[in-house]
Each structure stands twice: as structure tokens, then as C-alpha cells.
Amino acid sequence: MVQQIYSQTFEIKSPNKNIRLQVVVNGEISWSASLNENVIIKEARIGMNFSSGQDFGTNSQVKRHSIKEYSSIITPVIPHKDAVIKDEFVQLTLTFKGKYQLKFRAYNDGVAYQFADESTSDKNVMEEKMSLTFPEGARSFFPKENKMYSHNERLYLKKSLVEIASDEFCSLPVVFTTDNAKVLFTETALHDYPGMFVKGNGSTTMDAIHPKFVLEIDTKKKQDRHQTITKEADYIAKVSGSRDYPWRVFMISDDDRTFVESNLTFQLSKPLAIKNTEWIKPGKVAWDWYNANNIYGVDFKSGLNTATYKYYIDFASSNNIEYVILDEGWTKSTTKILDFNPDIDVPELIRYGKEKNVEIILWVLWKPLDANLVQILETYKSWGAKGIKVDFMQRNDQYMVNSYEKIAKECARLELLVDFHGSFKPSGLRRVYPNVVNYEGVKGSENNKFSKSITPEHNVTIPFIRMAAGPMDYTPGAMINRQDADFQINFERPMSLGTRAHQVAMYVVYEAPLQMLCDSPSIYYKEQETVNFISQIPTIWDETIVLHGAIGDYIAVARRKGSKWYIGAMTDWTSRKLELDLSFLKEGNFKMEVFRDGKNANRFAEDYKIDIIEVNKDSKITAEMSAGGGWAAIISIKDINK
Q1: Catalytic site includes residue 611
Q2: Active site residue 69
Q3: For a 10 Å CB count at each end of the chain, is N or C smaller?
Q4: Which of 256, 359, 391, 457 is catalytic?
């Protein structure tokens, strides 16, 4: 007897009614989304296949459904952009025959869905299916990958979807553009499961793909940071018992500013897993690797030695910078990481730092750390280190995703901060373990040492795409600044493309609770006026308002910490004037300290000017920026004369 499958349709709308999500179940599961009655996601077909034969999205039948409205307040332990987040959404829950659920949520700034398995059996996930079809003419900002074994540090290629072949794929997050709105797609609540990529097929449809479960690694090759995967399974994950799968997140807006203001990836993350969080202290870092430990004007030979790092600590202490990182070179070797370079007395540096109110964070390769996690972390803790910077993971298969969480959990037990460098994008772990204070997974300023790819256009692209997933370890603060015609690649003395004010504005625009100052302390001492401005800017925020924004063109962000407001504006290679409406201020008069491009910044990128003016909530200020330029402001005390 042939079983008859009836088509069922369900619909929910966002709290403000602007986004409509429609789900159709007719054996298969598909959904679509519109904004202001314009179709943005034409069709998304979704499902999961298992080794047990229990498939989601095949011969599916809904047993029951519910639609509920939710509204609550989230107060993050480490507020990346807002100290108070209003979590308001409408949820459709579909319960299927076959012991699984599918949850859909409609928010004012997007939609999301999540599969939940109610069975208790052990099985393998063979495939997760997701085919996204967009309207004709859809384009993308495509972070193309060459392979899944990757740092996920990409440029965003502007490509029509029909130009993306079936052998081309990208990491997340990725932005798709239609005639009426944009969609930013990423994932969160990623636990015990591989990360997702999406590939093209020469049409307006994009398909999900995942790295396979890793069975064997070549251990004969004596590589300190790279791995050769020699055997993969035919499945993507091993799963056991009932569980939730990651949230698939789609920010939808016809205003690019939404992607910077949105907290969706945080809202959909799992809740806090640790009780004591008072020890987690965000802050700035004096960082050594970018500037190759190049200090000068001292009576000792600079390099990987105790005297050089004491110089970094002195600089940090004199400028209220909370941390110094000891990057590659402090260990006895890159694989012998329980002992230190004989020229670097790490316990003495930690002692000296504490005396100067500066904490030490230790860089470490993932491979040797993974091989002996507990002993290594306990050793670093016993020395008095405050955290670790883990580098060269380069994978996001199930084992690696689990390793991130294992590291975060163990570091939380020992009260150690974690900065994941050489990593995939943030995917929800920072809410569960807020000691995870930063992620790389971004093509950042370190590339200035060996390429010309970090352009002002790139710098005003990443806040709208990569930063929507979470904080990013871009490492700003370059003091050797050049316009395009004057730029030269120099590994030992790197320079940045764009103006000095462009770099300074990054400290407001870029979210990073652990934020770097990448250049040499010797250069910073000569640029003390710039350092004095940067050192006033916090790394976490109580409120964020995006004043202007267009992906790849320009951005202006206002952020509040306590009673002070901070504004950062950046442009691509086009000089611009942006009018800034200060109506977000309270009543009264305020002092605004402005760091802006100098009159000759178009020719000499290091040219800047600092102004102090009086403003109030009725003020409208023009941020004038040179090519590759920037503009920053600190708005503080009411009495201009104080």
C-alpha cells in the first residue's frame, strides 16, 4: 500500500511583521522568506540523512505544530556590542513522525532554523542537506576557499551566483544580494558537529557541504603546525542520543547597517556554562609578531629575549594597556612548549608584568597543545599566565570543533583567557564560555607583512560580513601608513594601506574584547599623541548604533561605554563626507575630541589632526575622510572647560 503524503503549509512573521517565513512540508521540507512582501530567499530545501536510516526531510509528516511569541532580555557577561539585548522572536515548532523536531524563528533582523533529534540511538550523520535558491540576478560577497583545510582568511569576491561553479565553495559567513535586500548566512550553537561551507552549481542555488569525519592523520610527517589528513569517513559526524543541531542563521535586511548591529548569532547561542566570570577582563594588548620585535633606541639587542619583552611591558604599563602577548619564539621550540626559550625568562616576565599591572598571554600551536592539553595549561597557570593564544587549527571538522570547546572549558576551569587565532569564524562558543575573548578567521593586518591585499575596501567589507558572526582578531594599530602609490611589502617593518585615522577608527568599528596594538612600542613612543587617543577607547560596549554603512564602501559606528560615546568612521579608496547626527546624546553640552585625516592625508597617509569641539544632541557633524581615510571621536564630559 502506497502511503499518501499531504502537503502542509505553515507561516510565521517577525514581531514587526516585515519578515515573512513560509514552510512547506510535502514529504520534503522547504521554506522561503520575504521582506516587505519581496521574496528574498525563493526556496530552501533542507534535511539530514543518517546511517540508521532515520532521515529528516524524507517522507516527512508533521504530527503537531505550535507557534509562540517570545520576548526576554539577555545580558552578556562580555558585551561585544550591547550590554542589554532584547531577544524577541516568533517561533514555529514542527514535531515530525520519526522522533525529530524542526524549529523556525522569525526575528526583526532575520530568520533561523534548527533540527532537533529526539531519538536516543547512536548513529552517523551521513549528510546535512540545504539548498538555497535566490531570485534571478542574485549576487554574493563570496569568501572563496581553495580547500576545507584553511585558516578561513579570505577576501570577499563580488560574484554573480550563476558564475559560481559546482567546484567553487566558500566558508561562512557569506552575503547574498538580491534586488530588494541582502542575506547574511552563517551558523551558531555549533557544538560536537562540523562547520558548514556552501558551494555553487552555476545557478542561483547554493548547496551546503561539510568536512568529513577525520579517521587518520599522517603522523610520520614531523610538522609542527600543519596536518595531512590521510583518511576520512563517508559521514560528517558521529552522534549519540537526543540532541540539538546548529542554528542556521539568515540575517535579512535592505539596510547594510543591520548586519553590524545584529546580535542574532549571540541570541541563538547556548547559554552561559560557567558560574564565576568576574576574572574575565577584556582589554588591549601590546603585540610583538607584526612588528617582528623591532624596537630601537635601547642599550640591548632587540629580539626574542627578556629585555625586549620588559620593554613591551613598560610600554603597556605606561599606556594603561592590560596585556602583552608572547608570540611565536618564546617556547624552547614550537613543539616543546612546556619549557621556554633560554633567552626568555617567562616566569620573570610574568612577575615583572604583575608588578607593572600588565598580564601576560602565551601563544601556542594547537597541535602540541591538543596532545597534552591539561598539563600544558596547568603549567602556564602555575607560572601566572593570564591566557593563551591558540594558533594554526585550520580545520572545522567534528574533532576540531570539539577541541575548541575542550580548550575553552579547561581554560575556564583554570581562569585563563582564550584567543583563537588560525581559526574558523565565531559560532556561539563565546556565549557559553565568555573567556573565549577573540577569534581570527579574518584576513587581517598581519597580511601587510607579505601582501597588498589589506585594502581600505577590504577593511570596510569585513565589519558587515565576518564581524556579524562575532569578534575578530584583525590586529589594528599600524603606525606606518601609506597611500596605494607609496606602499611596499616589508616583512620586518610592515606598513598599512590607508591613513592613520583609518587605523585609529578601527578601534571603535571593529569588535574585539581582546584588541591588539600591532606596531612596535618604539614607534608608538614617537606617536604618543595617537596612542593617547587609542588608549581611551574601550574594547567592550554598552550600546551600538550604526550611523552609516554600505558593504565595501564606508561605515560610521557610534558606541557607548558608560557615560561616554565613541564614533569610528572609515571609507574605501573614495574620499567621502558623512554627516553624523548626534541625536543619540542626552541633554546638555559635551566635549568631542576628534581624530581626523589631515589636509594632506591623500598624499601623506600619516597626516592627521586632532580637534576638540563642543557638541550636543542637536549637533550634526561632518566626518570628512580622505581616500582610504578615517575619522574617530570621543564624546565625554559636559563641561568643555574641564
Answers
A1: no
A2: no
A3: N
A4: 391
